Amino acid sequence: MKFSYKLLLSTIIVMALALGFSGFYFVNYVFETSLEREVGQAMDESSILSFAFETAALNVPTRYNVLPDSTVEEIASNLETGGQSARRLLRISDEEKNVLYVSDGFAANEALLGQTDEETKLYRVIVSGEKYYIHTSVMVNVLDRILYLETMRDVSEVFTQRQLGFSLYRRVTLIMLLIGTVIMHLIASFLTKPIRLLTRATKRMAEGDYAYRARQVSRDELGQLTRAFNYMANALEQNIEKLEEEIDAKEEFMGAFAHELKTPLTAIIGYADMLRSHKLDEEKSFMSANYIYTEGKRLEAMSLRLLDIIVTGKNEAVLHRVPAEEIFGYLEELYADRKDVEIRFSYDAQELMVEVNLIKTVLVNLIDNACKASEEGGVIEVSGYIAEEGYCFAVRDYGIGIPQKELHKITKAFYMVDKSRARSKNGAGLGLALCAEILKIHHSELGIESTEGEGSCFWFVLPIAGEDVQTEKGVQ
Ligand code: ADP
User: Fold this and answer.
1) Is 163 exposed, middle or buried (0-12, 13-18, 19+ CB in 10 A)?
2) Which of 88, 104, 187, 284 has the smallest count of CB within 10 Å of its CB?
3) Is 432 near ligand 1, meaning CB less than 6 Å away?
């Protein structure tokens, strides 16, 4: 059953109970008050009649203060009409409870009479035919006689009013329930609107429409739930996008990898086939074997680089306090014999928090790339200086440069701007990918500025070792 129907049904049940009980209580209260008033009037009438009877009996001239039955009957008859058009219903009985006078239509039995004595005035409600009466009984002590005066007062109107009250209330309850049902239906569907919108959103998302969001129509708890749901949907959409990007990158990587394998393998297979199926002279045999050797070496270097990238990405960097001088000293020594280009080093002395071998690998890759991009005799500037955010390393060359549209791609694995030039210089497009991976685990990234034909500058910033920094620190 729908939640809005449950809400509607429970409200109708509560409304029906509330209206039913309050109606019953109200009508009954009115009835009991009216009946009490009628009882009071009946008892007053009974007192007045007994007083009138005593007065009349005392005023009748009697001998020896005796009240004969005939006089009783006469007085009773007079009291019955009482000078009014409406007749009273009364009954007078003697000491032995024998009836001396009774009005026509006086239908009460003798039950009340049996309980009446000097002190008690009694009444009860009786039903005769379709009518209701208040039956009273009182003892009258006059002259030498003890008599019993009973009256009957018609109170059918009070009971009829009660019946009318009940039926009116039933109708009012029904109408109220009908109107209440319509209003509650509107309220329930208004209140449950956020739930319906949320349900629709979950269905749409389950069908693959991750951009679909539930509309927030209220600020209450359900509104907050909608906001939380949309927040979750945003996070989910971003994660899915990220996953899709990762899958695309993996596919791209696999494609490039297969392609990079194919070229050296084709050469190796071709030359190996030539060696085994033809009798080649010594020079050609050497050339073929050399080709196989160089391409094999290239494959080996590529697989080592790939391994480096994978291992670096999975490991944590263990940071040490290392003076910048140590890194630059190593580089100066490494490139001391290089004659084809002029490498200039300049740096600020400073202790850094780095994994030194990895940072050396980055710088060597950047300097090698700068060498490959430079002309014979070109200048390469390798610098290290203290900047606002940390210690900045920069490698600048004045070589071929990189086209603007290629800049964002060059850190991708196997990406080479000029493939034949890169391959001829033993490149496989993996150096910068490795650099990016190493800098990532140092919480840094590679900055690149380049102008085609004018040269490039590659830079990155590393943390400076503070006073309080421990000598060894693991970084995710
Ligand atoms: P490779 O092994 O080919 O050098 P890298 O990942 O180091 O691979 O570099 C990717 C590509 O970026 C290179 O093939 C080259 O086209 C370009 N590149 C990198 N450094 C420079 C530079 N300093 N000047 C011009 N092009 C560069």
Assistant:
1) exposed
2) 104
3) yes
Taking only the tens place, the pLDDT of each residue in 233-259 is 999 999 999 999 989 988 887 887 787
In this structure, the residue with its CA closest to atom 13 of ligand 1 is 416
Pocket test for ligand 1, best of 257, 302, 410, 414 (most atoms within 8 A of CB): 410
Candidate of 369, 430, 439 to mutate for ligand 1, largest count of ligand atoms within 8 Å of Cβ: 369
- Contact status, residue 36 vs residue 221, Cβ threshold 8 Å: no
pLDDT at 289: 93
pLDDT digits (tens, 9 = 90+) for 331-349: 999 998 888 999 999 999 9
Mind listing the pLDDT tens digit for each residue in 450-471?
999 999 999 999 988 875 544 4
Pocket test for ligand 1, best of 297, 405, 432 (most atoms within 8 A of CB): 432
Distance 369 CA to ligand 1 centre (A): 6
Give the atom of ligand 1 at the shortest distance from the alpha carbon of 427. 2
Query: Could you tell me if the CB of 449 is within 6 A of ligand 1?
Result: no
Q: Check if 197 has its Cβ closer than 6 Å to any atom of ligand 1.
A: no
Is 0.85 topped by the overall pTM? Answer: no
CA of 401 to the centre of ligand 1 (A): 10
pLDDT at 471: 43
* Rounded CA separation 317/113 (Å): 113
CA dihedral 144, 145, 146, 147 (to 10 degrees): -160
Ligand 1 pocket, residue 416 CB under 6 Å: yes
Residue pair 135/112 in contact by the 8 Å Cβ criterion:
yes
For 212-234, the pLDDT digits (tens) are: 999 988 889 999 999 999 999 99
Q: What is the C-alpha to C-alpha distance for residues 228 and 223, in angstroms, rounded to an integer?
A: 9
